[in-house]
Amino acid sequence: MSTQIAVRLPDEVVAFLDRSVADGVAPSRAALVATALEREMRRQAALRDVDILRAQGPDQDLDDLVAWTAKNFTMDD
């Protein structure tokens, strides 16, 4: 399900969206905006996780998982 909304964006942002669609980077303006917002949602969730882990301190049970993630994950994923 999706909801249509009206958003006012600066001209340079709209120009970027249009270039991205014209260059084939994204199938539509909406798709690129949705992708960017989904990435921001994941970033904010990760920051909340960091705050929780900072408050709780290290957990040795997760050391192997953290080491694997640090080696295999990039923010571009």
Q: What is the strand content?
A: under 5%
Q: Number of DSSP helices?
A: 3
Mean pLDDT: 91
N/C terminus separation: 25 Å
Order of helices and strands: HHH
Radius of gyration, whole Å: 18 Å
Q: Judging from the principal axes of the Cα atoms, what is the shape?
A: elongated
User: Helical residue percent?
Assistant: 55-70%
Count all strands and give the number.
0
Residue ranges: pLDDT <50 for 5 or more in a row? none
Structural class: mainly alpha
Biggest beta sheet summary? none
In words, what does this structure look like?
The protein has 77 residues and is mainly α. The protein has 3 helices and no strands. It starts with 10 loop residues before the first helix and ends in a 5-residue tail after the last helix.
Outline of the structure:
This protein has 77 residues and is mostly helical.
Write the layout of secondary structure elements.
Layout: H1 11-22, H2 29-56, H3 63-72
Descriptors:
0% strand, mainly alpha, elongated, 77 residues
